[in-house]
Write a structure and sequence with these properties.
The protein has 224 residues and is mostly helical. It folds into 3 domains: 55 residues; 41 residues; 66 residues. The protein contains 12 helices and no strands. Helix 4 runs antiparallel to helix 5 and helix 9 packs across helix 11. It is elongated and about 75 Å long.
Length: 224
């Protein structure tokens, strides 16, 4: 029987002929650099902001909400353009968005400074029995431009002012019937001045009203 050759180093050399072991799941041992990189990368940072598309959508929603809020306010009370702009400025939207909303509201007639001026004039004349100065101040307080105020007030003349002052003084003079004339005149002039009538009109209307109160027969004769 022939004996097969045998090498004493064969068992030690066999592992060198085997293929390297490869992980089926691609596993790789983590290195020190990998650990350091993971520690340096935060999951969130305060400086990060929303996606531009998300910001645009949020801005659009804010503008629409501001417009709805303004329309709701206008349904309850008429506003001047200055008042409306001030309201929109409180809604935290951009200036160009405010301009767009204002343009739309003016174009649709939701905002009309002249119409508001005429409304203030009507209330001042018919309900409050005010003079020119008080009505003009009320318009200015609502933020109406000077040219709008002047145009609205142009329909009034001095004769109208005197007639309204006289009518107001006549109603107030009745309560001063038992008051000494000079004292009654001062009180009546003060009431007329607080209603916004001018100085010359105040004096004339107050004196005429007291004269009528003192001489009713003569007044009736003159009025007939």
């Amino acid at each position: 029987m022939t004996e097969q050759p045998h090498s004493g180093a064969g068992s030690a050399a066999e592992p060198a002929d085997l293929a390297p072991v490869i992980s089926l799941f691609g596993h790789r041992e983590r290195t020190a650099d990998d650990v350091a990189s993971a520690q340096e990368t935060p999951s969130w940072h305060p400086a990060w902001v929303a996606d531009p598309l998300e910001r645009a959508e949020d801005d659009d929603e804010a503008v629409e909400a501001a417009e709805r809020a303004l329309i709701k306010r206008l349904r309850a009370r008429q506003l001047s353009c200055r008042e409306a702009r001030g309201f929109l400025s409180e809604q935290e939207i951009a200036g160009d968005a405010i301009d767009r909303i204002m343009d739309v509201c003016v174009a649709r007639g939701y905002l009309d400074d002249m119409r508001l001026a005429e409304q203030i004039l009507h209330v001042g004349l018919d309900r409050k029995k005010q003079g020119r100065r008080a009505i003009s101040q009320a318009m200015t307080a609502r933020g109406l431009p000077r040219d709008v105020v002047d145009e609205a007030m142009a329909v009034l003349d001095e004769d109208d002012e005197l007639e309204r002052a006289h009518e107001f003084a006549r109603t107030k003079a009745r309560s001063l019937q038992n008051v000494e004339r000079d004292a009654a005149l001062r009180r009546l002039m003060g009431q007329l001045a607080r209603r916004g009538f001018s100085g010359a009109v105040v004096g004339t209307a107050a004196r005429v009203a007291l004269d009528e109160l003192a001489s009713p027969q003569k007044v009736r004769f003159l009025e007939s």
